[in-house]
Amino acid sequence: MITPCTRMNVGNVFYAGASRPEGLCDGAWRSIHQYVFALANGAKQFWFND
């Protein structure tokens, strides 16, 4: 059974550059890094017609 990550807590804040922020697990970073990169480079939307 899949359970919530025990390393994350409600209210955690992470600041990211080009690499995984300190304290953020690898799995979470792999899931969101492309969105972080896009936002950091001025993306206004992620999906077509969003």
Fold and architecture overview:
It is built from one helix and no strands. The longest helix is centred in the middle third of the chain and has 15 residues, at 26-40. The chain has one helix spanning 26-40. It is mainly α and 50 residues long.
Number of strand segments: 0
* Helix/strand structural class: mainly alpha
The overall pLDDT, averaged over residues, is 84
Rounded to an integer, what's the Rg over CA atoms? Answer: 13 Å
Distance between the termini: 33 Å
Instruction: Name the poorly predicted regions.
Output: none
Shape field = globular
Strand content: under 5%
Fraction in helix: 25-40%
What is the H/E string?
H
Main beta sheet: none
**What's the tally of helices?**
1
List keywords for this structure.
single chain; 50 residues; mainly alpha; 1 helix; 30% helix; 0% strand; globular
What's the topology here?
Blueprint: H1 26-40
Write a brief structural summary.
With 50 residues, this protein is mainly alpha-helical. It contains 1 helix and no strands. It is 30% helix and 0% strand.
